[in-house]
Design a protein that fits this description.
Elements (H helix, E strand, L loop, with lengths): L1 H8 L6 H43 L5 H6 L1 H6 L11 H16 L3 H9 L5 H10 L10 H8 L6 H9 L7 H5 L3 E3 L5 E3 L7 H32 L2 H12 L6 H12 L4 H9 L12 H24 L5 H8 L4 H9 L4 H16 L3 H6 L7 H10 L4 H33 L1
Helix pairs in contact: 5-7, 6-7, 11-12, 11-15, 11-18, 13-15, 15-18, 16-17, 18-21, 20-21
């Protein structure tokens, strides 16, 4: 009886491996449950955001017209050196391809693409299609084509077709950077009278930088005031900050046009004060764009700053002052470094939103104040050139991603330093 009691009181060995397996299984089940909860969101983002983005970006390198509408010609041109006129079989293949494309109503798209390479290519294709089929079949298709139009005896037109024989091309991306490929295939700058996009990108980034800097200067003291005021006053002031979100951007831009025009309230008020003799040009120029953009972007700078400042104890600064540090120096050395995260987030948000803005510069700016988004809209809505539109948009997206990576790196380095 005593031995049985002693045996019962001795602790039995624990199966450690079994407990670990159960723990791993429970963790795996929890992870699967968590993944199942966010799976609908992942699918939504992939279908609604990622897939359309990839499809649109693909258009910046798409070049399907020549390869799709002149398949026999592209195959026959594979062995051509691209210097002199192509051989006889290329002309014969082109005759068959042009006739087929014309019968299928595809010649217009082909002509539009090649016409962007050499002006007049569309009329060349249309005139040639009107003369086909060649009946009776000529002994030399090469000579017959040259007799139809002497441009078929110019190697430049064949070289343009040869350069576009691939279904993918870097031409749109090169054009959006004021670059092109010469006859030898080397990347060179376009002529000065055709170079516009580099200056547009510089203007876009400069204007966005100015808007971001002005927003920071205006938003920092306001966010500090919001963080230090009593709750009732701070809530009232926060309503004023959020109020613009309840008004359409188009309405706000129209209001600035009314305020800043030659006979607007601002010029009239300045004239009544005797500060000016004639109305100032405050709208339809860069000043008007800056004023309206700062007004629109200011809440996006205030909110990140406020969220950071609200969590900074005021006792830190008071302690520095009590230890003999002057108020301004204590603010600079104690308070300001703790707001770097809010400054970085606000500046990144405002800058990214500014480089992609379209409505405000289009309505309030002059032709020399338009940003990249204006040209994206132009190629999308006016010329229907999806290649150039997506190339310019893709470069803006690339700039945004680079800025985000730099910001993440700076935030990580700052956390490591503080830690």
């Amino acid at each position: 009886m005593l031995s049985t009691t002693i045996t019962d009181t001795i602790p039995q060995p624990v199966d450690t491996e079994s407990l670990k397996a159960k723990l791993h299984r429970a963790e795996r089940i929890n992870r699967l449950k968590s993944f199942g909860l966010i799976l609908p969101l992942i699918i939504f983002l992939i279908v609604v955001f990622l897939v359309p983005l990839v499809v649109m970006l693909k258009k910046s390198v798409d070049n399907p017209e020549v390869a799709a509408y002149l398949p026999a010609t592209v195959t026959a041109m594979a062995d051509w050196d691209g210097k002199d006129l192509p051989p006889e079989n290329v002309y014969q293949a082109l005759a068959a391809d042009i006739e087929t494309a014309n019968n299928n109503d595809e010649l217009g798209n082909l002509g539009k693409r090649l016409n962007s390479e050499i002006s007049g290519y569309r009329s060349l294709l249309n005139n040639t299609a009107d003369s086909l089929p060649l009946d009776p079949a000529p002994e030399s298709y090469k000579q017959a084509f040259i007799d139809l139009d002497e441009r078929w005896g110019d190697a430049t037109y064949w070289q343009a077709m040869y350069r576009n024989s691939s279904p993918y091309t870097p031409n749109y991306l090169l054009s959006s950077l004021d670059l092109k490929k010469d006859q030898a295939g080397a990347i060179v700058k376009v002529s000065e009278d055709q170079a516009i996009y580099q200056s547009v990108f510089v203007r876009t980034f400069w204007m966005s930088l100015v808007i971001t800097a002005v927003c920071l200067v205006l938003a920092y003291p306001l966010a500090y005031l919001l963080a230090t005021l009593p709750a009732r006053s701070a809530n009232l002031l926060m309503i004023c900050v959020l109020l613009p979100f309840w008004t359409s951007v188009l309405v706000r831009v129209a209001a600035w046009i009314v305020l800043l025009q030659n006979n607007g309230l601002v010029n009239t008020f300045l004239e009544h004060l005797g500060l000016i003799d004639s109305p100032l040009q405050l709208v339809f120029n860069r000043f008007g764009v800056y004023v309206a953009m700062v007004h629109i972007m200011l809440p996006f700078m205030i909110l990140p700053l406020y969220s950071v400042m609200k969590n900074i104890p005021q006792s830190y600064q008071r302690a520095a002052i009590s230890l003999g540090c002057p108020p301004m120096i204590s603010f600079w050395l104690v308070y300001l470094p703790q707001t770097y995260a809010g400054i970085g987030a606000g500046c990144l948000l405002v800058f990214i939103l500014s480089i992609g803005y379209y409505i405000t510069p289009a309505l309030l700016g002059s032709p020399t104040d338009q940003m990249v988004s204006y040209f994206v809209a132009f190629y999308t809505n006016t010329t229907i050139n999806w290649g150039m539109a997506t190339a310019l948009g893709g470069l803006l997206l690339l700039a945004t991603l680079i800025l985000y990576v730099i910001y993440s790196w700076l935030v990580g380095a700052n956390r490591l330093r503080l830690g």
